[in-house]
Amino acid sequence: MTEYSILAINPGSTSTKIACFKGSQMILEKNISHDSQELAAFEHVSQQLDYRKSLIEKTLAAENIALTGFDAVVGRGGGLLPLAGGVYLIDGKLYQDAETGANGVEHPANLGPQLAKYFAQEAACPAYVVNPPDTDEYQDLARMTGIKGLYRTSHLHALNLKETALQHAKKQGESYQDVNYIVCHIGGGISVSAHQKGKMIDGIDIVGGEGPIAPTRSGSLSLASVIELLEKGAQISDLKKLCTKTGGLVSLLGTSDAKAVFEAGQAGNSQAKLVWDSMIYQIAKTIGQMATVLKGNIQAILLGGGMVYNDNLVAQLRAYCDWIAPIYTYPGEFEMMAMANGALRVLTGKEEVKRYTGQPVWDKQLLSL
Fold first, then answer.
1. How many other C-beta atoms lie within 10 A of the C-beta of residue 361?
2. Which of 16, 133, 172, 303 has a CA 20 to 30 Å removed from the CA of 42?
3. Which of 111, 164, 103 is nearest to 134 (CA)?
4. Is residue 284 one of the residues assigned to a domain?
């Protein structure tokens, strides 16, 4: 059996992770840190392309890894319009939408397809993205709001959520396409999603301010609260930052370090304990919402992400939710493995590669309102 070589690239806010795989076995992982002052010199994320590309080239050269040996390159998806889950070939349209940020979100993930395409051209092999953040498999019921013309959209940790579900199904001897799971990513951001027979039919828009309190995210707010902030002089840009950068633990306690907040609470800081417990309470509430979406037909609740290493968090969530379904923990994240496994499924013929059209997977005009 051919043992395919795959390069995975995951650009983040302060670093770029790369990993090399032989089949599903990771043989190298590097976290390339970026100086914040150097990144600040770029007005837009896509302008960082040459800077990050050069650092990846130097890292691979230092490890004596030749690009000609790769059979596929996978980049973290970003900047795309809503699309179904799966593995997508990085062609001209997908590259263009990532470069321009067609979804209106300026995020380092937009560099993923651009970097992957460059290194794939050097290696003379295909380039892919796998379950990008704009993966949208919602049912129409999940899209509706009480305001005409406004609809809920999907922005969540799709790559890690889907891979956690796939890994668990494989471990249990189940098919992801035959089971229902509630899958959570609990880390710097928090996603909670309902998976029904291989599709995420509901979840939360973590870019738009939905869901639980998170380290840098406000979580859901009432409209009255938002109006109050505006009346007090907050700008639209301030509100957007509260959704993704300056909300949650940062706003409440001045830090995004969840471990430090937990430890302060354990040491007797009542404010830290209240914030920690409230965050877990809201995660549990959101899991309960997804349980109703799946009508109680749930084979497992899966907890992934860096905060799942905390036994207290897991114990509290079990106390709230283990009556719903068995709870399994997958601390950390599978993002690099998820990208490589997606490419591997295509290379081995187990999954058909998809083509990105640039047309949103759902159309407002198709809904009755």
1. 16
2. 133
3. 103
4. yes
Q: State the residue range of the domain holding 104.
A: 5-135+336-362
Contact 67, 106 (CB under 8 A): no
Look at residue 64 and tell me whether its pLDDT is greater than 80.
yes
208: tokens are 């738009």
Residues 237 and 220 placed together within one structural domain of the fold:
yes
pTM over 0.85: yes
Residues written for the chain = 369
Q: Looking up tokens 């809904």, which residue turns up?
A: 367
Instruction: Find all residues with CB under 8 Å of 304, minimum gap 6, and list them.
Output: 160, 161, 164, 183, 184, 185, 186, 329, 330, 331, 332, 333, 334
Q: What would the two tokens of residue 102 be?
A: 């067609």
**152 and 221 share a domain?**
yes
Q: What is the Cα–Cα distance from 302 to 105, expressed in whole angstroms?
A: 28
> In terms of DSSP bridges, do strands 72-75 and 87-89 run parallel, antiparallel, or are they unpaired?
unpaired
Rounded Cα–Cα distance for residues 126 and 107 (Å):
24
Query: Domain check: are 171 and 131 in the same one?
Result: no
CA–CA separation, 156 and 163 (whole Å): 13
Pair type for strands 5-11 and 15-22: antiparallel
Structure tokens at 245: 């950068």
Distance between CA 104 and CA 59 in Å, rounded?
Answer: 31
